[in-house]
Write a structure and sequence with these properties.
Radius of gyration: 15 Å
Strand order of the largest sheet: 1-2-4-5-6-3
Helix content: 10-25%
Number of helices: 3
Number of strands: 6
Structural class: alpha+beta
CATH topology: Thiol Ester Dehydrase, Chain A
CATH superfamily: Hotdog Thioesterase
Largest sheet: 6 strands, antiparallel
Number of domains: 1
Order of helices and strands: HHEEHEEEE
Length: 139
C-alpha cells in the first residue's frame, strides 16, 4: 500500500492559504490526491456564488501537493508554470471535493488533471489542468 501523506500535508499548511480556506486532505499518495472544503462565506464572491479563486485554490493545492509527494528522484521541489480551469457549475452550500491525478510524470515536468465536484449534488463544478516544473539543486 502506498504511503498516505494527507496528515503531513494538512499539518504543513498551517497559516497558509490552504489552511485559511479550510482545505482538508482525505488522501495523498503518489500520483493521486483527494481533498475538500465546507462551503462558507469566505469561499463566496460578493454575488453569492462560489468564488472561482476558491475552486482554483482547491484544485491547484491538490495538484501541487500531489506533485510534492510524487517528485522524481533527485528533485527538491516544483513551481507551477501553467494552469487552466473550465468552470461548469457552482455550489452555494455543502462541501466541494477535488480528485487530482498525475497524467504525466517526467523528469522535468508533471501534468495533473483535477475534477472539482459539489458533494451535495454530485455535479462537476470545474475541470482543471496544471503543469509543474520540477526543481533540482543547482550544480
Amino acid at each position: 500500500m502506498a504511503e498516505d501523506f494527507s496528515a503531513a500535508l494538512t499539518d504543513g499548511q498551517a497559516g497558509s492559504l490552504p489552511d485559511l480556506l479550510g482545505l482538508q486532505w482525505i488522501s495523498a499518495v503518489r500520483g493521486h490526491v483527494k481533498g475538500r472544503f465546507d462551503v462558507d462565506k469566505r469561499h463566496m464572491a460578493p454575488n453569492g456564488f462560489l468564488h472561482a479563486a476558491s475552486v482554483i485554490a482547491l484544485a491547484d493545492s491538490a495538484s501541487g501537493y500531489g506533485c510534492m509527494v510524487s517528485l522524481p528522484e533527485g528533485a527538491t521541489s516544483f513551481t507551477t508554470i501553467e494552469l487552466k480551469a473550465n468552470f461548469l457549475g457552482t455550489a452555494r452550500e455543502g462541501g466541494v471535493a477535488v480528485e487530482a491525478k498525475l497524467v504525466h510524470g517526467g523528469a522535468t515536468t508533471q501534468v495533473w488533471d483535477a475534477v472539482v465536484t459539489s458533494e451535495t449534488t454530485g455535479k462537476t463544478i470545474a475541470l482543471f489542468r496544471c503543469t509543474q516544473m520540477i526543481l533540482r539543486p543547482k550544480a
